[in-house]
Amino acid sequence: MDLHATVPPSSDGAYDLDDDLTGGDLEFAVDSEAADTDELTNKPIVEAAQALAAAEVNTTDFTIVAHPQETVPAVPVPEPVEATTPTSTGATASESAPAQAGASASAAPAGPKLRRKKKAAKKPWDAPAWVVSALIHVAVVGGLAAVATGSGEVVKRLKNLDTTLVANPSGAQELTPVLNDVSDVPRDQAAGDTSSTTVGQGVGFASNIGTAPSSTPTVSKSGRQINEKSSLPTIASIAVPSGISSTAVKLNRDLGGGGMIGGDVTYAATDVGVALDQIAREILRHLTQHKVTVVWMFDESESMKDDQKAIREKFDRVVNELNINAPDEVPAKGKKAKSSGTPLNHAIVGFGNEIHFTQEKPTANIEEIGKAIDRLQIDSTGKENTMSAVGRVIDHYGKLITDERKLLIVLVTDESGDDGAYVEEARQAAVSRDVPVYIIGRQALFGTDHLTLGYTDPVTKDFFWVGIKRGPETADIEALQYDGIHHRWDEVPSGFAPYELARLAKDTGGIYFLLPSEEGLRIKRREKAYSIETLKEYVPDYESRSAYLERREKSEFRRTLYAIIQETKTYPFRHHYPVFPEQLLPAIEEELPKTTLRLNALIKIEERLRQLEKLRNREPEKRWQAAYDLMLAQVVAYQVKAYEYRANLLEMQAKPPKPATMPNPELFVEWSLDHSTERKAPKEKTEKVYVEAMRLLQLVVERHPNTPWGDLALDEINRGLSVKRNEWHHKHSTRYEERAKLVPKF
Known about the structure:
- This protein has helices at 43-55, 93-96, 129-150, 152-159, 272-287, 305-325, 366-374, 386-397, 423-432, 499-508, 532-535, 545-554, 556-567, 581-610, 613-618, 622-654, 683-703, 708-719, 736-740; strands at 2-3, 25-29, 113-117, 218-220, 264-268, 291-299, 344-351, 355-363, 405-412, 437-441, 450-456, 463-469, 511-514, 529-531, 576-577, 667-676, 722-731.
- By secondary structure, it is of the alpha/beta class.
- The chain has a 7-stranded mixed β-sheet, with helices on both faces. It has a 3-stranded antiparallel β-sheet with strand order 1-2-3, with no helix packed on it. It has a 3-stranded antiparallel β-sheet with strand order 15-16-17.
């Protein structure tokens, strides 16, 4: 075998194996065929070789230093000579070497042979492998970068990339952000850090416009609440220093917890002023990179008058603050770009069935903006084509979008709109032009799209019920649409935005401001504070509607629940009956068979639902688990209601009741069958089902506390599982039918 020894140069005058004695490296060659050769006369080298052989080391490099008894001059190493074996008296081979020179090689053990190891000649073009690899990678990456940045066509295609057909372009399903507490910061730090990625937290909402309480819930949190006084301060005029004027445009903190909160659809505010303050911060953030044109879009429906008034009262202050804090000039981008126009201007647009460009030309003049808001019309059609209006605004003002100017939309509405089917077109228009859409709106109703408003005729004082669309919070309904007797009338809030508006705000990087309103026109008013920490497990899917429907169709569990929802839409019973026997009895005869059919159908539905229990436990989304739990409890409870409803009909049929007050031309009087805790049917007929229904409803409350599902289950318990006959009165004028035609469309 070959042994290579690398030894550091000697420092004590002795030489070692790395000394430059021969002009090259030394290489030991211990040849098995030379086992019988004499030892070398060169004592240090022989001793080193013997030490190597005795140690039985491997062939890796190691260091040996030989120290002879006397100094050896640095002269060329002599050729090795044969050495004799040790004498019987114990003399070493080195001691007897001079006397035994020329002895036979067969008499001595094997010794090392010295050979010269030539250095490989280096060529001038040789280079280390890593250098060559680095040069090649730099050349390839540089070429790709040149193509990507130098080709206008490539850049254009990347910017216009359409991802609407991707079911979940962001990868894993996104959870609802747990919002941070509001920072208790000084007034000179009232706007957000442009480099922050912290999600801001809103708080509950209660408008200060002097109207009655609302049934829409607030979203609670553990920090202090923000209201207009603790947010941006009111200023008397432009000359008065703003609360945020002492800070540079690129600010370091935000009262909401950080400025970069785009895509948040659960931002709650205590009033309209708080929403406007946060929008002002967002505008200032965009102004650090672009000039900005803001298009304010107002729903012109009758129900929006209060909101328009509240915004108008606070709008001047916010615009004043923006003008104070906006930079005088935004640096132009690109070599050929020229800075022109004011950094910030505004346009005002109204919409309903049609769109009205009230302040078409963007302006920075506060007085003109205020007058434009005052000129907003009231749309009498009752239609809100929200998505179409968004698309038209982007198309109309799209020509203003450049590398140095950005377009923002602020949409103010209290409905989900009548053209939700066009949400994808509106979304794509905004995403392709990079237009964030900020929405000041209401919370959707839970599991339904119908909200009832009340209207009193100003002339005759007649009262009318008017319905508007506000919901649902999901791409399609996920709850039963009747309450065991009638169509749903509970109006439980969902805690989330209407699906179409939430999808638009989320995907464009805007914000949906949840305003639990104090709407004087609401029939049912329910104040409920839902915790976002609880609701984050029940966040709706904000994917496209087609993707949502496809996923539902692939799941037997979800598909079955939806089929039951559709089937039971026809299950509500008759609510009102005439008080005159000749009209009452035929109506009862017509309705009685339906009660038996409904009761048997509900029993069959219960069987179907119980067969899905295993699938319920495997369902990954808690929303659908809660939907199953509530639906099963309701189906069992509604069996009791069907039996109780039939018991009331049989009682009225056997002995038609007489009202305490008879109807007259100005008073409607009818029998009304309503929910009750007083049980009419014999308990022995319904007790077993009654107990099971109460157990299941209580189970929903325990499994899903402080959620819309738990609250609706509590409603079922509190209003009772029975049915009671009531005498219903409704006053009206002789012109009631005439005035009904003049009720405004909300």
